[in-house]
Amino acid sequence: MGGIVSGAEQLSAQLEKRLPPKVQRFRLDDIPNVMRARLGWPVAATLMDRWFRAPAHVMSDAVKSGRAPHQLTQLNPAQLDETTVKMTWALSHARVQAAVAKLQTKWSSPAGVAQLQRRVSEQGVGRSTQCWQFGNLAHSAKILDKTSQVNFESIGNLSDPMDDFYGAMGEATLKVAVSGVVTPKSPGKTAIVIDELGFYLRDSYDFNDDSFLSQPLGFWSFNGVERRPQLALDVPTTTQWAYGDPSELRSQNYLVQNKHFRQWRKTQGYGGDFMVLSDVHRVRLATPVRLEW
Questions:
Q1: pLDDT (tens digit, 9 = 90+) per residue, 158-185?
Q2: Which residues make Cβ contacts (< 8 Å) with residue 57, sequence separation at least 6?
Q3: What gap in Å lies between CA 144 and CA 135, rounded to an integer?
Q4: What is the DSSP string of the chain?
Q5: Which of the residues in the chain have pLDDT under 50?
Q6: Omega within 30 of 0 (cis) for the link into 69
Q7: What is the spatial distance between Cα 77 and Cα 201, in angstroms, rounded to a whole number?
Q8: Predicted pLDDT at 68
């Protein structure tokens, strides 16, 4: 009997030797490690890791747009990341520098001044005729967003360079808040001198499509990501194995779309959407801007 078992084991071992190596296929939740280890995208990897680790949560449109009572100041820590994205990191990307420069020149557009007027009017109720300080740029972005933000600029598109900012933020909103001294004039008249601007980024981290077409997020493998269209398999959301040459299998590209993250969330019970805010980049104006209305 022992000889029969030994013979079967030998036959199985011989068959196993004839098979190509068994290799685990690339999986959706391998992306953060590829971002960090292969691409050098630490910020993008940190944000995606957070999404994968969080309990399943689908962000509502009200939270995404900041409609009351879902303003940024009302969100709990599970719904808002304020520590990962730094403006010093963002400004290392040329398109962010360009957006800041553009917003610095247009913050006092008619729409920006109208927003400033509303903010000053709301905060000036009950104040005396003395001068008072508007805006404190030492506050966090979520406070500024509610109190002294006056204008914004959209930043990023799908044709941007595939870098850490692309992976982390993609298409985001660059906002500007202002600080200055308000001087009440004659009844119904106000003047303000703006001497400092504060820039910050706001984004939603989710994979929820607005249309029946799911947004493509590139062709991924253990070796990195490519943009160009090519024949590729849909990325697995569960563990799958294949027999073949390890180097070839590890370089196999997989199409990644928003829908794959939603599928992963449905099967795993994890995958939590959240809002993202950066810290504040402050710019002191060489020549303060005086406005009256």
A1: 889 999 999 999 999 999 999 999 999 8
A2: 78, 79, 271, 272, 273, 274
A3: 7
A4: -HHHHHHHHHHHHHHHHHSPPEEEPP-GGGHHHHIIIII--HHHHHHHHHHHHSBPBPPPHHHHHT-TT--GGG--TTTEE-SS--HHHHTTSHHHHHHHHHHHHHTTSHHHHHHHHHHHHHHTTT--SS-EEE--TTS-HHHHHHHTEEEEEEE--TTS--SHHHHHTSSEEEEEEEEEEEEE-STT-EEEEEEEEEEEEEEEE----SSSSPPEEEEEETTEEE-S----EEPPSS--EEES-HHHHHT--EEEEHHHHHHHHHHHSB-B-EEEE---EEEEEEEEEEEE-
A5: 1-2, 4
A6: yes
A7: 17
A8: 86
260: Cβ contacts below 8 Å, ≥ 6 apart: 28, 234, 235, 237
Q: pLDDT, tens digit, for every residue of 217-238?
A: 899 999 999 988 667 789 999 9
User: Could you tell me which residues come within 8 angstroms of residue 39 by beta carbon, excluding any fewer than 6 positions away?
Assistant: 164, 167, 224, 225
Q: CA nearest 119: which of 106, 132, 129, 100?
A: 132
Contact of 218 with 228, CB cutoff 8 Å: no
What would the two tokens of residue 253 be? 């590209």
Query: Taking a C-beta distance cutoff of 8 angstroms, is the pair 203, 66 a contact?
Result: no
Q: Name the residue with tokens 């400092």.
A: 196
Q: Are 175 and 200 in contact (CB under 8 A)?
A: yes
Among candidates 134, 8, 32, 75, which has minimal Cα distance to 276? 75
8 A C-beta contact, residue 121 and residue 182: no
Tokens, residue 133: 């300080």
